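Hey L., structure's done. Input below.
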Amino acid sequence: MENRRLRLPLAIVVAGAAAAAATLLLRPRSGLIEPAAVDAKAYFSPEQLQRASDFRDTQRLLGLAGLAVSGGTLALLALRPPRLLDGLGRRPLLGAVAGGAGISVLLVATGLPLSAVAHERAVAVGLSTQDWLPWLGDVGKAAGVSAVFAGGGAALALAFVRRFRRHWWLPAAAGAVGLGVVSLWLFPVLVDPLFNRFDPLPDGRLRGEVLQLAREAGVDVGEVYRVDASRRTTGANAYVVGLGHTKRVVLYDTLIDRFPPEQVRSVVAHELGHQAHHDLWRGVAWLALVAPAGSFLAQALAERIGARRGLADPAARPGPAALPALALSLALVAFVLGGASNALSRRVEANADAFSLRLTRDPAAFIALERRLAVTNVADPDPPALLQALFGTHPTTVDRIGIGESWARLAGG
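Output:
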């Protein structure tokens, strides 16, 4: 009994140590540029700062409320699983598919009012271009995709729990890493096209510049796509995704059509930095290092939360009624470990910024780009430190401008 009581505190310590160690081990160690101190008021007008604050402060509150609603819903389900889940226990694994998908859809439904308010505010500020019907259509498609993955994941998790009992965290960790790799590989070709149209960049000036930058960087860029982001937003962005033959750089059409060529080059160079540094594989490596300890913590939590559903009994064979406890445990672990993942992501993004500056040697374009992205996306240039530490995946805009300023000084202006 004493060992069982110590299991959860031990798991918390092990998971925290694993996340910290993986983040320190995999963080970029060279090539970074220390940002200069920057005052947001020197780059943004009072009206722009006020507009960003008015919009983002409330959006953040809505996001936090959404997390509370999702967590509260899972907690209620874990404490009092619906009788329907007990009925699905006649065929446990098929019941787990239905139960996992049902929980996923329920979470979307409970969060829908807050999401609708956030969407309405994005439309009002000019960031979202979607009417209600297209927006609801995207919500429905996203809910369907999530339900498919949740159903399959629930069946796999319950199979591990029933088969391995005291040690199901081991195969669960391997499954998490495998799912992460498969998602990176297949999402660009199976899931992303459900929401947007992706067209290879046609021959012309921009494609030529992208390929020239890739040659200068010594990077196999894969394919470069233009995505019709304007059907959903006026915001601009770019990203790198995919593994193997699905590897690609994706540029928003809003970026291509509305930003000056030198700023688009700066964005492309940043994404090439991710390719050059193998950052997607860095993320997979972080997951592989952290997943065992994270799964061990999830099992320890699930055994406390779902003890009455057989999760703490080595002789029991839990059914779908244990799914809410498993889901809540995994959600809590993902939230806590996400802070370490975001810390690594911010450093990785800063390293890609430095790569972009060295490749283009155009700090003026880089600084102008960061400023314009913040204005276009109605982003807070300098968000609250705590929220940035918990949720920020990129350096703040003022830090990124500071990186550009430092490079300009190092390069002699």
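DSSP finds 14 helices and four strands in the chain. Strands lie at 198-200, 223-227, 238-241, 248-252.

-- N.
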